[in-house]
Amino acid sequence: MDVSAIITSLLTLLSGIGVFLIACQMMSSNLEAASSERLKKLFSKASDNKLLGVGIGALGTAAIQSSGATTVMTIGFVNAGIISLSQAATIIYGANIGTTVTAQIVALGLSGGSSVSTSVIFSALAGLGAFMGIFAKKSGPRTLGGILAGFGLLFVGLELMSGSMESFAALPGVRTFLSGIGNPLLLVLLGAVLTAIIQSSSVMTSIALTMVVTGLIGIDQGIYLTLGSNIGSCVVALIAGLTSGTNARRTALIHLLFNCSGVAVFMLAALGLGAFGLSYGDIFEMAFPAAPQLQLAMFHTFFNIVTVAIMLPLTGALVALVRKMIPERHVVQDSEFSLQFVDDNMLRTPPLAVSQVKREILRMADLAIGNVDRSIEMATDLDFTAKNMFERDERELNFINRELIAYVVRLNGRSGLGEKDRDYLSGTYRSVRDLERIGDYAENIVEYAMALQGSGQQFSDDAKYEISQLKTLLHRLFSLAMDAYRNEDLASLDRANEVEEEIDDYTRRMEEGHIARMEKGICTPSVGAQYLELSSNAERIADHMINVAKTIKTLNHQNI
Known about the structure:
Layout: H1 3-34, H2 36-43, H3 50-64, H4 67-79, H5 85-98, H6 100-109, H7 118-123, H8 125-135, H9 139-169, H10 172-179, H11 184-198, H12 201-213, H13 219-232, H14 234-242, H15 246-274, H16 280-287, H17 292-311, H18 315-325, H19 350-381, H20 387-412, H21 419-455, H22 461-487, H23 490-520, H24 525-550
Helix pairs in contact: 1-9, 3-5, 4-5, 4-14, 4-15, 5-15, 5-17, 6-12, 6-17, 8-9, 9-12, 11-13, 12-13, 12-17, 13-15, 13-17, 14-15, 15-17, 15-18, 16-17, 19-20, 19-21, 19-22, 20-21, 21-24, 22-23, 22-24, 23-24
């Protein structure tokens, strides 16, 4: 046996795997950037409809070419309480179907006659995509160039892997060794271990495809290696689940049990076929003669579709089982609060993490306006029963301000974000600060209320009426500003600007009314000082509300 030939083949295989992995990452990140808006809309439609969940998982995975990313993202959504365990299960089912697209692409690349092969033609797209990425001025063509370059490099890596397999196939000792591995359980275990090491079922399936095409292993051996790769692909989800909450760990376990159940069913079915002298290889060779690459790719698709068909009606039982296996536990948190819609698992799918950041900011806005209401009520009624809730929400606003900005910094450093997403993230720093400042001004109003209580005085009935009108205007502004921010609605922004000007005018009239009451002796100077400070702080609250809404200007291709 030629040792140098074996070393050369191993190094070539390693090079091919490296190029293939880089290609997968390039395609995934650029496809996410190109389809970010569609992905956001797709995953926002998750419901208790099982078939819809399967469709979302399949389309999402096919779009970003990464079942691992889809699964980790789903774990993040479950951890944040956005989707239920049942919804997560069906999305994971679909992700397993969506990931078979890669095997079909590889099978296509391994096809071709004696002329120029399909793989060589597709490999040339790497050069075209590189030129587009380097010379394109706009983000759209650059993203398309990244997709084409990744797609082309996929086949460059495939050619390297295929070449190394052909070299192995020429070595009698290697062929003898591999042909001796005929135990299905051993092949499944080998596929699972190798996939866990590589952390990519797509790469493992592609290696199996090239080994089958070059004759290094038989079709049945390739099938069992592929079955094992489905179990090994759960490692990424298990790692993500271990670092998250109870429901996230349950979701990772659902992924593992789903794939293991499918493999178990197909292994038992293989025993049944063996009783009739048949194997999966025999069946798929008859269905796709003289095309080993199609035989294995089609089995991969068939396996996942059949497994989904079997497990879909059993989803409720599967969810109940994982709830028993991983019961609820009360964990003492390091912090009093937590971000509810984002976690680090979502950083693997940046476009969807961006949409969750918006949800977190909208939650922060609700906390801020809630404290504004409480502060004004305390000032007018001198009733401080809500003060504990006010202080709790103020602490939570400060927590979100600190933690969400840190999260956005990490998210902004990820690849796979489109130009619009980056523009949005650049505005989130100010939006979060503005909302935190609204909380601070509400805190000031509470201090004025406490000063009034300490002096034994209160606002006049006229002053209370004016403050209630001001509160109504602030609510109108808040509603319009948040509609503008949530829906990127320029019409709502225009109406919000009008209300903000109304508030400016109204606070000026409040000052004039206060002076008139002072002259009549209705209000004392000390009460008047608190009243003017309250109206001034309310006007600043309005400024910060409109600042949040104005961040949508950068997201629209209009001059405003």
